[in-house]
């Protein structure tokens, strides 16, 4: 039996034809003369109302039509008498695929807490909030591919199981076929990885960048968009152990070009979501407004979700160096009153509270910070000769900072000078032998190049206005969460 999606039926909104719709019951309401059933099939945030006259449906059928039950309804589209909807379905026949025992079904037509919904992540896509988030997530993913395709980038898939630690931060999940309780040992008592499947130590990737650079040095402009893993203690509202990262890498790009691209990219994909997810974003905007009302006055945000999205797409991002930012932060009110949780000083990485202060209070614009101290950044960033700090102390890094989140993008121009790169690797204790393939791009036909990484879930978090990154991925993986 064919059927029409509710999104399609509501969009056409013409009374007259007979339709079949299939979906899950959201609510059932009985009045003296009629039964009203609200049905949603996930294609849209909206429900369609189906109406039967009292006594029309057999008692056994009516009993099974409860919140969460799955059914098909065939009937004529008629003009609706009710407010808020143009059309409804005058029920001809009902087929029940699967009932949902109302005494046991965990989702009821009321507002459930996000904490509770996190415990039933397998069912939460059936709620308005989560179906809206998942549709926005889909649209953003599509917009990402579209943006790069439209701008001459090639989609490159980099390894998920890899021998390299791109960030050198030691936050990797080990992948091994060896028996963890009794691994084979070498003569000097170390684990003998030569007996492992790949013949050496391997991990889940923390970034596709190093391999992405190989692509850029052949195809010009590439991007990766794949699963990324970090075994960090990610018990924050902005970190996941498994997330999706978007990493463009461009030959012949310097830091300035990289910043221009990052700014244009995020603005374009957010604009795309505003155009193509208007209903879902209006719903999420409204949801957030209701949530804000429940908060104490001083904790309320001064911007609504839609205002925040406008704030990003309509402002030119403020660009300044890390050194300038530290100066501002040290002289800021919260620093003087000791209101920051962490103290700011040159050479220490900024925390999200500092990043947010710059964006929300000081500049009132999204911010791009550049030229970070090299000791707090990864080995592959290009050393800065002409920065405001003494030469060599900073690198050509950039972080893009957003309201409510702080860092959303981290990127840099890459060190393309073989001597400088290998010297730096030795200084920070990275084996040059293990990365011989990476160094080959500097030995043969090296070129200036740059790129950045955007955590896809940070983008979805921002666009949906949610407060916790675990609520913008279908199956969140964080410490102590492994239902799936
Ligand atoms: P943070 O300072 O927030 O921990 P980072 O500087 O460690 O981020 P990078 O190594 O620069 O992160 O990674 C690039 C981007 O990947 C970040 O700007 C962020 O958007 C995203 N990202 C990093 N770690 C995570 C994580 N654990 N979960 C989700 N997204 C992440
Ligand atoms: Mg981190
Ligand atoms: Mg950071
Ligand atoms: Mg970073």
What does this entry look like structurally?
Its main location: cytoplasm. InterPro entries: Aa-tRNA-synt_II (IPR004364), aa-tRNA-synth_II (IPR006195), aa-tRNA-synth_II/BPL/LPL (IPR045864), Asn-tRNA-ligase (IPR004522), Asp/Asn-tRNA-synth_IIb (IPR002312), NA-bd_OB-fold (IPR012340), NA-bd_OB_tRNA (IPR004365). Homodimer. It is found in: Cytoplasm. It catalyses: tRNA(Asn) + L-asparagine + ATP = L-asparaginyl-tRNA(Asn) + AMP + diphosphate + H(+). The protein is of the alpha+beta class. The protein folds into two domains: 6-110, Nucleic acid-binding proteins (OB fold (Dihydrolipoamide Acetyltransferase, E2P)), CATH 2.40.50.140; 126-171 and 206-471, Bira Bifunctional Protein, Domain 2 (BirA Bifunctional Protein, domain 2, 2-Layer Sandwich), CATH 3.30.930.10. The protein is built from 14 helices and 16 strands. It has helices at residues 6-12, 59-64, 114-119, 128-150, 209-219, 255-276, 278-293, 305-314, 322-330, 333-336, 352-363, 418-427, 436-443, 456-464, and strands at 18-30, 34-40, 48-53, 70-79, 87-98, 154-155, 161-162, 174-175, 202-204, 221-229, 242-251, 318-321, 367-373, 394-402, 406-413, 449-455. The strands form three sheets. It has an eight-stranded mixed beta sheet, sandwiched between helices. The protein has a five-stranded mixed beta barrel with strand order 1-2-3-5-4. A hairpin with a 3-residue loop joins strand 1 and strand 2. The protein is globular and about 85 Å long. It starts with 5 loop residues before the first helix and ends in a 20-residue tail after the last helix.
């Amino acid at each position: 039996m064919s059927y029409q999606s509710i999104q399609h039926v509501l969009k056409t909104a013409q009374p007259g034809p007979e339709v079949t719709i299939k979906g899950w019951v959201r609510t059932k309401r009985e009045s003296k003369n009629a039964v009203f059933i609200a049905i949603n099939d996930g294609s849209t945030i909206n429900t369609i109302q189906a109406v039967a006259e009292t006594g029309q449906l057999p008692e056994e059928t009516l009993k099974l039509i409860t919140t969460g039950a799955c059914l098909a309804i065939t009937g004529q589209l008629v003009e609706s008498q009710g407010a808020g909807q143009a059309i409804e379905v005058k029920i001809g026949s009902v087929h029940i695929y699967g009932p949902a025992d109302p005494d046991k079904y965990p989702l009821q037509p009321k507002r459930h807490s996000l904490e509770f919904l996190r415990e039933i992540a397998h069912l939460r896509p059936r709620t308005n909030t989560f179906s809206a988030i998942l549709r926005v997530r889909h649209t953003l993913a599509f917009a990402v591919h579209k943006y790069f395709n439209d701008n001459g980038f090639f989609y490159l898939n980099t390894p998920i199981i890899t021998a390299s630690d791109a960030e050198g931060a030691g936050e990797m999940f080990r992948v091994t076929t060896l028996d963890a309780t009794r691994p084979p040992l070498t003569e000097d008592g170390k684990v003998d990885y030569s007996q492992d499947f790949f013949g050496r130590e391997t991990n889940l990737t923390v970034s596709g960048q190093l391999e992405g650079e190989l692509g850029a040095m052949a195809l010009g402009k590439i991007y990766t968009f794949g699963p990324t893993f970090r075994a960090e203690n990610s018990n924050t509202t902005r970190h996941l152990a498994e997330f999706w990262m978007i990493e463009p890498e461009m030959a012949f790009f310097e830091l300035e070009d990289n910043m221009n691209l990052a700014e244009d990219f995020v603005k374009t994909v957010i604009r795309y979501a505003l155009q193509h997810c208007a209903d879902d974003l209006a719903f999420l905007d409204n949801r957030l407004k209701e949530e804000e009302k429940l908060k104490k006055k001083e904790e309320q945000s001064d911007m609504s979700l839609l205002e925040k999205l406008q704030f990003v797409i309509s402002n030119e991002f403020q660009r300044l160096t890390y050194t300038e930012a530290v100066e501002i932060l040290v002289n800021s009110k919260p620093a003087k009153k000791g209101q920051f949780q962490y103290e700011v000083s040159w050479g220490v990485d900024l925390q999200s509270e500092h990043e947010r202060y710059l964006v929300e209070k000081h500049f009132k614009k999204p911010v791009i910070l550049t030229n970070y101290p090299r000791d707090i950044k990864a080995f592959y960033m290009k050393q800065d000769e002409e920065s405001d700090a003494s030469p060599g102390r900073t690198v050509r890094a950039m972080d893009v900072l957003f309201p409510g989140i702080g860092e959303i993008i981290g990127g840099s121009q890459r060190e393309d000078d073989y001597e400088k790169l290998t010297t730096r690797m030795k200084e920070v204790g990275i084996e040059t032998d293990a990365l011989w393939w990476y160094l080959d791009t500097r030995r043969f036909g090296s070129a200036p190049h740059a790129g950045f990484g955007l955590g896809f879930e940070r983008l979805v978090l921002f666009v949906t206005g949610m407060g916790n990154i675990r609520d913008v991925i279908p199956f969140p993986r964080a410490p102590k969460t492994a239902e799936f």
